[in-house]
């Protein structure tokens, strides 16, 4: 919405400063993260259940409003009773089947470097110069705070024809 534009930058500045003051990440990481997500955060807050004074108090402190994480919460549930749990019934023998491929959370990091630092203080590691010795990021990827190198995703996709055919493919 156009009326949000001046406030998006202001919220971004406050969020970046808060991220740095709380030492959540290095200053440049705080600035980059806020730059990526500030419009989404402001949009979500504008549509949230927070009243303007609460949102302002959350972002800027008591000088403009009051927000209390321990404040009273009121969640209204419908009067309809929850339906009883029915255990799933397995299909009968000989029922039709289908092969599905479901790919999810294939996060590609264009800056991934095998052998780079795999345990860093930043939100995303496995970047930068490779270093000799154990403890570096693996060639195919690294569990933890790292996304995947492109060659891992390419290798996965190259193997799919040998596993085909699929009735449907979902990539989320």
From TrEMBL:
**Could you tell me the Gene Ontology terms of the biological process aspect for this record?**
ceramide biosynthetic process; sphingomyelin catabolic process
What would you give as a GO molecular function for this chain, any one?
acid sphingomyelin phosphodiesterase activity
Q: Does the keyword Transferase apply?
A: no
Q: Which domain of life is it from?
A: Eukaryota
**Organism of origin:** Pygoscelis papua (Gentoo penguin)
- GO cellular component labels: extracellular space; lysosome; membrane
* Swiss-Prot/TrEMBL keywords: Glycoprotein, Hydrolase
Instruction: Please give the name of this protein.
Output: ASM phosphodiesterase
């Amino acid at each position: 919405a156009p009326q949000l534009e001046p406030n998006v930058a202001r919220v971004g500045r406050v969020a970046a400063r808060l991220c740095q003051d709380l030492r959540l990440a290095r200053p440049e990481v705080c600035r980059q993260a806020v730059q990526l997500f500030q419009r989404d955060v402001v949009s979500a807050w504008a549509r949230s259940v927070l009243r303007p004074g609460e949102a302002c108090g959350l972002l800027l402190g008591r000088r403009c409003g009051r927000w209390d994480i321990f404040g009273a919460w009121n969640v209204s549930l419908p009067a309809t009773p929850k339906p009883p749990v029915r255990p799933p019934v397995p299909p009968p023998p000989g029922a039709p089947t289908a092969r599905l491929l479901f790919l999810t959370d294939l996060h590609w990091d264009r800056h991934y470097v095998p052998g780079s630092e795999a345990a860093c203080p930043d939100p995303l590691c496995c970047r930068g110069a490779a270093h000799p010795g154990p403890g570096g990021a693996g060639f195919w990827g690294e569990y933890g705070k790292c996304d995947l190198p492109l060659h891992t995703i390419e290798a996965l996709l190259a193997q799919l024809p040998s596993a085909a055919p699929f009735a449907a493919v979902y990539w989320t």
